[in-house]
Amino acid sequence: MALTTNILDQTNGKPAANVLVELYLLMENSLQKELIHVSYTNEEGRTDEVLLTNEKIEVGEYELLFYIGDYFKEMKLETNGSTFLNMIPVRFGINDREANYHVRFDVSTGGYQVYLGD
Fold first, then answer.
1. Cys bridge to 65: 15, 22, 24, 100, which one at CB 3.0-4.6 A?
2. How many CB atoms lie within 10 A of CB 36?
3. What is the mean pLDDT of residues 25-31?
4. Quick one: average pLDDT of 62-71?
5. What is the pLDDT of residues 100-110, one digit of tens each?
6. Cβ atoms of 69 and 87 closer than 8 Å
7. Distances from the Cα of 62 to the Cαs of 38, 55, 57, 73, 80, in angstroms?
8. The whole model's pTM is what?
9. Which helix or strand (DSSP H or E) is residue 70 part of?
10. Which residues are within 8 A (CB) of 25 and not within 5 positions of it... i.e. 6 or more apart?
C-alpha cells in the first residue's frame, strides 16, 4: 500500500511546486490528530517520497493539509494582499492496508477539487 498526492494549479495550468503538505492521523474522536509526515511538492506537483507505506499505514481516518495560500502568494495571485483559500484540509478514510491511494488535488485561486486518482 502507498499513499501519494499531487497538486495541479488550474489557474496557471501547471503542477504546483513547493507547496507544504502535512499528513495527520485522526484520533478516534476526530478532534485530535497526530502529525505523521511533512513534505513539499516538487516541480511536478508531487512529493518526492511516498507519504505512507504499508509498514506505517493504519486503517483509519487521515487528513492532508495543503498550504496553498503560501503558494498563491509566491505566485503573486493573491487579491488585495490576501488569498481566498489558505490552508485546505482534506479528510479521508483508509480501510485497506494493501491498496494504493493517490489523492489528486486540483486548485485555483477560487476553488478546488479533490478526488481519488490512479
1. 22
2. 15
3. 85
4. 95
5. 999 999 999 88
6. yes
7. 14, 16, 10, 27, 34
8. 0.91
9. helix 68-74
10. 33, 34, 36, 58, 60, 61, 62
CA torsion angle 66 70 74 79 (round to 10): 110
Q: Residue 103, by phi and psi: left (phi above 0), alpha (psi -120 to 50) or beta? A: beta
Three-point CA angle 21, 23, 26, nearest 5°: 145
Closest CA to 11 of 59, 81, 66, 83: 83
Q: What cell does 6 get?
A: 499531487
- Per-residue pLDDT at 38: 97
Does the structure show a pLDDT above 90 at 43? Answer: yes
The grid cell for 2 is: 502507498
Taken in order of first residue, the domains within the chain and their CATH numbers are 2-110 (2.60.40.180)
pLDDT in the model for residue 118: 75
DSSP letter assigned to residue 84: S
